[in-house]
């Protein structure tokens, strides 16, 4: 199993959870420092760079053999109103969150096609459906993952490969550490369960989607945000 962005936050929770469930997990990290996630092997990978992805996948195969399950969780935020943002600030988010997932899928899907079985899961965000001021680049990149996953569901279904998206709401990770208290309260007030989520809750959903039991689920976009954005 190959989990991108596994060094922290939701990605780390997913990698750790899958390891506890008995999967052999290779995670990727954009930094050269080896993260400390129990039971998870790490390779360096900058998902924006197709060659870096190819190298990381080759290293993962040395540990795992063929790659049959991929969870695309690598992502960044760089918030700001569109008219105040530089081209670079916009492009880096798109390249990491969307193009990076395309790079990873393109590199790993051949293994799954050879086996006539595979699982692709893309970690998006409820913002993909909801929109958010100051997050044009982030919302666009996360919306793109829905189109990517659905298109791959059509392309790969006959090979027994599923492709799905999970859309977390406000989850307690360091990615939201800079969120103002006012904005936090505003989002929670619009969340029927009136709380933030835990990374472990997202991990449990991903674990189901990569299991044999989820073999008839593909092309789905599943919100996990306590009901926030319901009906969008």
From TrEMBL:
GO terms for biological process: monocarboxylic acid metabolic process. Keywords: Oxidoreductase. It comes from the Bacteria. Transmembrane segments: none annotated. GO terms for molecular function: oxidoreductase activity. Residues 3-179 form the Ketoreductase domain. This is 3-oxoacyl-ACP reductase. It comes from Kitasatospora cheerisanensis KCTC 2395.
């Amino acid at each position: 199993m190959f989990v991108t962005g596994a060094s922290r936050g939701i990605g780390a929770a997913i990698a750790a959870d899958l390891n506890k469930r008995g999967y052999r997990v290779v995670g990727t990290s954009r930094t050269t420092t080896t993260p400390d996630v129990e039971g998870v092997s790490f390779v360096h990978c900058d998902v924006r760079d197709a060659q870096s992805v190819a190298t990381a996948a080759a290293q993962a195969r040395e540990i795992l053999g063929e790659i049959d399950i991929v969870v695309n969780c690598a992502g960044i935020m760089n918030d700001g109103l569109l008219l105040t943002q530089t081209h670079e600030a916009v492009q880096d988010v798109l390249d990491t969150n969307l193009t990076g997932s395309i790079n990873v899928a393109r590199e790993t899907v051949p293994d799954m096609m050879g086996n006539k079985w595979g699982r692709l899961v893309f970690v998006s965000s409820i913002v993909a459906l909801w929109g958010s001021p100051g997050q044009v680049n982030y919302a666009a990149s996360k919306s793109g993952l829905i189109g990517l996953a659905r298109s791959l569901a059509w392309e790969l279904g006959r090979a027994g490969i599923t492709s799905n998206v999970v859309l977390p709401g406000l989850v307690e990770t360091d990615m939201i550490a800079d969120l103002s208290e006012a904005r936090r309260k505003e989002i929670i007030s619009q969340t029927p369960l009136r709380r933030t989520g835990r990374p472990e809750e997202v991990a449990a959903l991903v674990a189901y989607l990569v299991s044999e039991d989820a073999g008839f689920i593909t092309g789905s976009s599943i919100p996990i945000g306590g009901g926030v954005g319901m009906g969008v």
